[in-house]
Write a structure and sequence with these properties.
The structure holds 2 protein chains of 2 kinds. Chain A is built from 37 helices and 28 strands. Chain A is α+β, with helices and mostly antiparallel strands. Chain A is elongated and about 135 Å long. Chain A starts with a helix and ends with a helix. The longest helix of chain B is centred in the last third of the chain and has 18 residues. Chain B has a 6-stranded mixed β-sheet with strand order 5-6-7-3-8-9. In chain B, strands 2-1-4 form a 3-stranded antiparallel β-sheet, with helices on one face. Chain B has 7 helices and 9 strands. Chain B is of the alpha/beta class. Helix content of chain B is about 30%, strand content about 25%. Classes of the chains: A alpha+beta, B alpha/beta. At the A-B interface, helix 24, helix 33 and helix 37 of A face helix 2, helix 3 and helix 4 of B.
């Protein structure tokens, strides 16, 4: 031990160098791990910061009573339930002419502030200031900056007005005035961008725009007094969802229960129709209670006429046209359940209950039969509205045989069979109807008004419920109510059973463990620790190389000592062990120092992510987090790597014969046959490269890129072999050479003195340059012909997104008129192709989201898009390769619960960690799961934030994905800007935001480009450190050649000339390495460079290489300094 | 060829080495005069300072005091560039260890001194190198690397290299020290032969009595100064 310590002390300079190099290796490796810690830790901090005390959230697709919060707090004392309305919309500052979209507009009460500790919510002042005319709004700093608003500024909030009735059903309104809600507010205060200032339930690191308004004001504005769409829950554990369920009332699930007499109730929905899973649950509840029930489905028949008259017009002429009557489908079979006494009965004119109604048959109440002058056995034609996929209304007619006439009693004149149709049910007269569908009020006669006065909306026509389902059932549901005979326990028993059977999710109500999900997502999709280890690989390798070099230099200096120890009989193993122990001790001490440096390196990288690379990952919030596990792993791993490097160095030196060590002789010259091997390698490399180059023309573009990379790598190998040949060649004559040429020739000759070492130096520099240039040059930008359909932009110029869903065809003049667009804007848009996409809200799956997506955003692809095709695919399911238009794959039937889907290759691979043929599983709105099977992967497309499925498949599983909020726009050439302005201006109320497709793709590409830049920078640093290694090699060469250098001085060479020789030797190797590596890399990426999309950072690449050359030269000056200061006589004497 | 070529004057040359604890005086006021064209041997026991004296004469080492004049020039007063030029032009050194550059062939090792000043050696220098190599019996080995030569051959190359620039003083430090007797005799023959042909003065330092015995003039180096060797004139 003492011997070891003496050695360490005696060779302290070399040992210090070894320790420092080990420290650098530890610092870089551990620092990279700390970057991972920092990203994860910061995302975690961000989650906790934005959510405050909110652990879970009860969210609803619609609205529910705010009483639920109180009920929940009563049943679960440890839970705080804070009511809120959470919406996303647009905000404009009319006086400033500014606007912001995708703003989180939140209606809250004072209690919301209590969710945050300290003074985080101090600025959340929601009371009205003295003299303030409009409701107050509190905005965050980010929104203030976006709008340029100040305290006191008036803002206009634009929101999608909620509707109980699905807007895309016949009874839903799509009138702009009903769809868009505007609320004028006045800025009361500004919140800092933390705590409530970045509140949002979706995990994303980007700073949200936030606006708070008093809950009551928002409820009033939206027509939802006493109702909310979210309960923010603090406290309560995993059982909270059960607790919530226990606190629910049937009305919270959107159901309406109305008494039918004393012994029955009708279970309906605020949505007018019962969702299919809810309907099924009601069926189970009724069966469970052993009660009898009857399904009811009521719709509107536009016109009804006797078939014998031929047409509606003829019937109108004959005065036998029945306009605007309700028609009800009643459950059939079993007929005996029809007309049970408690639920009302259908009684014939003869007083007997009607028990049978077959498909194709219809019952008319007496009033209608009289009006149409039809009898049992006659046929009538019924015309109803049919709502198309795009909400287009068409009429459909069905012919029925009259199976009987129903007396004006019981169900025959029961207005309760008809739900409250908006704009209809509450009208005093039929002529006052303001329905959501077109009506010809001219058809309404005196008789119809009389019926309305007597029976309101009581159905005049009855069919079997199956017929009703078929004729007017929609994706929103098929049944308007279920009449249930009250069981023994009365209505309470039924309510209890309904709550037990109905899955709240099926009713659009879900408890989301937002904090747990946020924290889980904070683990991130990208392991930044691994990423930065990759980026820093050259640094780590270079540091290890330095450790090995320094250590070897040290052991070589001790060659004679080792030789003597071996000569006096010490065993090789013991010598080796002793050296290794010294090395390990140095590495261990250096590692400890490295841990301190690691914190600095990690902090520098985090600073880089916050500043230099912020544009890509949008992470200005990043803070350094130092995890003890990362420190331990980093220390252990780097110690292992460094000791391995030392072990190799020790092994080589101690294995030399003692005589050679004693003589201080150089290592043996290169093995024989090296030159012929090098010749073969050079030739073979060139031939293979040529073959691959030729082959690249015969394969697909994506494969060609890989081949070219092979070409580059082979050229590098061939080049290195050529360098080996050149170095190993007999030195060129110094005769006839003088000046620079003479010095260069001497330098080359010197390099050839130890060709292996020289070749290693060139190979190291060349390989590093190859990777840095090849990777750096792979930068992409979206470019080329933006009208070309076979690009990532699909030939579209704009992507437009609205805050409020749009329910009309933007592409048609009529649709634009319906949307309230002014004539000028409408004319500007005419001629453009505008494809609308439905949006299922979810997590951004692009690389712009650092959080792990839990439930991806999905777009519904319209038929026109599938028809049109375009875009570039990275991969397609096997059967897709044969398709001329791969978009047809989205129409495939893959079986129950499986939907074909597309994703962007990068997002699927790196963010979703999935691939072609794999499934992404989502919970659908029907209470089940749906598997999105990836059948196509797009390449560098505009769709990197979402997955794509066919629109009809989306709405099948997610009926609430209402309207269209994303649009791809292809404008006539030269009118791009005009169309964009018209879309934004004309649809201002909808918060339409138009972005260039290229710009959007570029924002995704920026992440990749930034990663490339990071790699280039850290790789460059590694290379710089590597050049220090070169200088060490050179220094060793100089020391080994001390005698020669002294001889040269003795025969009259000047110090300056010798210095130049040493510089030239190093420079030669350096330049050879840089040029060879860079040229091979450029060959490798030449197809990419030839393309239109290359975004090559020529400047920074050149600067990196230049810096390498300069630092290499500077480092070499150390060797030079040593060379010219050599003690001439001592060197001549070989001391 | 100048008549004064190879004239050497030593005036009170002293050399001391300073260590942390001692000052060791190796040479103590050595004075001597050597006429042009002379061949002189200096002998003495190990540690007497023979090599140090030779290095001081060859301007590889600076005396602590005293002067060295070679052909009327004191090299120790020259600037670095002029000193290098002096070593290159006026001095030819043959070391005990040949110090050939292994990366160059024999011919290039010999012409090396001709490019030391940064100029091109040209064919003239190459011809002279070939002639010198022929003179040392290595005409057929010009393209060989040092590693391919025997010890005696390497030393002959070193002699040729020392003479390439026609130095005023040929300084040989134990030129046969590493050679067997037969080879040593051959190298000694060569030295005398070339000295006769090339002119200038030659100083050989050796402890080989055989070699010293072949010189007409010789000195024994003692602490006090150079004492003429017995039997030499």
């Amino acid at each position: 031990m003492r011997e070891m310590l003496d050695s360490l002390r005696y060779y302290w300079r070399t040992n210090l160098a070894v320790m420092l190099a080990a420290a650098v290796a530890t610092a870089v490796l551990t620092g990279a791990l700390l970057v991972g810690d920092s990203v994860r830790g910061s995302l975690r901090d961000l989650t906790l910061d934005r959510l405050g005390a909110v652990d879970q959230a009860l969210l609803s697709e619609g609205f529910f009573s705010e009483d639920l919060g109180e009920r929940l707090e009563e049943s679960a004392a440890e839970v705080d339930a804070v009511p809120a309305i959470l919406l996303q919309g647009g905000v404009t500052a009319p006086d400033l002419g500014t606007r912001a979209s995708k703003v989180n507009i939140q209606g809250v009460e004072e209690s919301f502030g209590a969710l945050y500790e300290g003074d985080a919510a101090a600025a959340l002042v929601l009371d009205r200031a003295q003299g303030q005319a409009f409701p107050p709004v509190v905005i965050n700093e980010a929104l203030r900056a976006e709008l340029g608003a100040e305290v006191g500024s008036q803002l206009l909030l634009q929101l999608a007005r909620p509707s109980d009735v699905p807007r895309e059903s016949l009874m839903g309104s799509t009138e702009p005035a009903d769809v868009v809600q505007r609320l004028r507010v006045q800025v009361r205060s500004v919140l800092p961008d933390r705590g409530p200032g970045r509140f949002g339930l979706m995990p994303h690191q980007s700073l949200p725009l936030v606006a708070y308004v008093p809950l009551a004001d928002l409820q009033r504005s939206l027509g939802q007094r006493g109702r909310i769409n979210a309960l923010l829950l603090a406290g309560g554990g995993e059982a909270l969802a059960d607790e919530v369920r226990r606190s629910l009332e049937v009305e919270d699930l959107g159901l309406v229960i109305e008494a039918i007499g004393d012994h029955a109730v009708a279970v309906g929905s605020r949505e007018l129709v019962l969702r299919a899973p809810v309907e099924a649950a009601i069926g189970r509840a009724v069966s469970g209670l052993g009660a009898r029930s009857m399904e009811v489905s009521t719709y509107l028949a536009n016109r009804t006429w006797p078939r014998e008259l031929g047409s509606a017009e003829a019937a109108l002429e004959a005065g036998r046209l029945l306009p605007y009557s309700t028609i009800t489908g009643l459950e059939l079979p079993p007929p005996e359940r029809l007309g049970g006494p408690a639920m009302g009965s259908l009684v014939g004119l003869d007083g007997d209950p009607i028990r049978e109604l077959m498909p194709g048959e219809i019952l008319l109440n007496e009033w209608a039969a009289d009006d149409l002058e039809v009898e049992t056995g006659d046929s009538v034609v019924v015309e109803t509205w049919e709502v198309g996929e795009r909400e287009e209304l068409t009429t459909r007619t069905a012919t029925f045989e009259v199976a009987g006439i129903v007396a004006m009693d019981g169900l025959g004149a029961d207005p309760e069979l008809t739900p409250d149709f908006p704009g209809v049910s509450d009208a005093r007269d039929m002529s006052d109807w303001e329905p959501t569908f077109p009506v010809d009020l001219g058809l309404i006669r005196e008789r119809d008004e009389e019926y309305w006065d007597l029976y309101r909306g009581a159905p005049k026509l009855f069919v079997g419920v199956e017929t009703a389902r078929e004729l007017w059932g929609s994706r929103f549901g098929e049944i308007t109510s279920v009449r249930v005979e009250l069981p023994a326990g009365g209505e309470e028993a039924l309510r209890g059973r309904l709550l037990a059977e109905i899955d709240p999710r099926a009713a659009g109500l879900s408890v989301l463990p937002v904090k747990a999900r946020g924290l889980a997502a904070a683990k991130g999709t990208t392991d930044f620790g691994g990423l930065f280890i990759g980026f820093s690989l050259f640094l780590i390798v270079a540091a290890c190389l330095l450790v090995a070099l320094f250590f070897r230099l040290g052991t070589e200096r001790r060659g004679r000592e080792i030789g003597i120890r071996l000569a006096i009989g010490e065993r090789v193993r013991r010598v080796r062990r002793g050296l290794l122990a010294e090395g390990a001790l140095l590495a261990a001490i250096g590692g400890v120092l490295g841990l301190a440096l690691a914190v600095g390196y990690g902090a520098a990288m985090v600073w880089g992510l916050r500043t230099l690379w912020v544009g890509a990952v949008g992470a200005p919030f990043l803070e350094l987090h130092v995890g003890s596990l990362s420190l331990a792993i980093g220390y252990g791993a780097s110690l292992l790597v460094v000791v391995l490097a030392i072990w190799r160095a020790v092994g080589r030196e101690a294995s030399r014969p003692p005589v050679a060590l004693l003589k201080g002789a150089r290592r043996d010259a290169e093995s024989a046959g090296r030159s012929s091997r090098a010749r073969w390698v050079a030739l073979g490399g060139l031939l293979l490269a040529a073959a691959l180059w030729g082959a690249s023309f015969a394969v697909a573009e994506s494969s060609a890129s890989a081949l070219f990379f092979g070409v580059g790598a082979l050229l590098l190998v061939a080049g290195l072999a050529a360098v080996s040949l050149w170095i190993g060649r007999p030195s060129q004559s110094l005769i006839s050479s003088g000046g620079v040429e003479g010095v260069t020739r001497m330098a080359r000759a010197n390099a050839s003195l130890n060709p292996g070492r020289s070749l290693l130096s060139v190979a190291l520099v060349a390989s590093a340059c190859f990777v840095i240039v090849a990777v750096g040059a792979y930068g992409h930008r979206f470019g080329g012909d933006e009208r070309d359909r076979d690009t990532g932009g699909g030939g579209f110029q704009w992507i437009a997104e609205s805050n409020v869903p749009i329910f009309h065809e933007l592409a048609s003049e009529e649709g634009r008129f319906e949307l309230g667009m002014d004539a000028e804007s409408s004319a500007a848009i005419a001629g453009s192709t505008i494809l609308p996409f439905r949006v299922l809200a979810g997590d951004d799956v692009s690389c712009l989201n650092l959080y792990q997506p839990q439930s991806p955003k999905v777009l519904g692809v319209p038929d026109e898009m599938i028809e049109r095709g375009g875009f570039v695919f990275q991969g397609l399911a096997a059967d897709g390769e044969e398709l001329e238009n791969p978009w047809r794959l989205l129409e495939q039937d893959l079986g129950e619960g499986v939907i074909p889907a597309f994703g962007d290759y990068n997002s699927v691979l790196w963010i979703l960690k999935s691939g072609l043929g794999e499934d992404v599983i989502l919970e659908d709105e029907l209470g089940g799961v749906v598997r999105l099977r990836l059948v196509g992967l797009l390449r560098k497309s505009v769709f990197q934030s979402e997955l794509l499925v066919a629109e009809d498949r989306l709405v099948e599983h997610f009926p609430s994905a209402a309207g269209y909020r994303t649009f791809l726009v292809e404008t006539p050439p030269g009118r791009e800007e005009e169309v964009a302005s018209a879309l934004e201006g004309g649809l201002d109320d909808y918060g339409m935001d138009v972005t260039g497709v290229g710009q959007r793709i570029q924002s995704f590409q920026a992440v990749e480009n930034t990663y490339l830049a990071t790699f280039q920078l850290l790789g460059g640093l590694g290379l710089l450190l590597g050049t220090v290694g070169l200088a060490v090699i050179l220094l060793r060469n100089v020391l080994e050649r001390a005698g020669e250098l002294a001889t040269l001085r003795a025969i009259g060479f000047r110090r300056a000339t010798l210095a130049w020789t040493v510089v030239a030797e190093n420079g030669l190797l350096l330049v050879l390495g840089i040029v060879l590596g860079a040229l091979a890399a450029l060959a490798a990426v030449s197809p990419h460079l030839r393309g239109d999309h290359a975004l090559v950072p020529w400047g920074s690449l050149a600067a990196t290489l230049l810096a390498v050359a300069l630092v290499g030269t500077l480092a070499c000056l150390v060797a030079v300094r040593r060379a010219i200061r050599l003690d001439l006589l001592a060197s001549l004497r070989g001391e | 060829m100048s008549a004064a070529r190879g004239e050497l004057v030593l005036e009170e040359v002293t050399k001391e080495y300073v260590t942390p604890h001692h000052t060791i005086r190796v040479l103590d006021g050595i004075s001597a005069r050597l006429g042009p064209g002379m061949a002189v041997v200096i002998t003495g026991p190990s540690g007497s300072g023979k090599s140090t004296l030779l290095h001081i004469v060859g301007a590889l080492e600076v005396p602590t005091s005293g002067r060295v004049i070679v052909d009327d020039q004191d090299p120790h007063r020259l600037a670095e560039a002029e000193l290098a030029r002096f070593r290159n032009r006026a001095i030819g050194f043959v070391f005990q260890d040949h110090h050939l550059l292994p990366q160059f062939d024999v011919l290039q090792n010999v012409v090396l001194p001709t490019i030391a000043g940064g100029g091109s050696p040209g064919e003239g220098a190459a011809d002279r190198a070939r002639r010198l190599l022929a003179a040392v019996g290595l005409a057929e080995r010009t393209s060989h690397r040092p590693a391919e030569l025997s010890g005696g051959e390497r030393q002959r190359v070193a002699i040729a290299r020392a003479l390439i620039n026609r130095p005023s003083l040929l300084l040989c430090d134990e030129p046969t020290g590493n050679l067997d007797q037969r080879t040593a005799d051959a190298v000694a023959d060569l030295l005398f032969e070339l000295h006769a042909e090339e002119g200038g003065s030659m100083i050989v330092v050796t402890h080989s009595q055989e070699l010293a015995g072949r010189f007409a003039q010789g000195f024994e180096l003692e602490r006090e100064g150079l004492r003429p060797r017995r039997g030499s004139g």
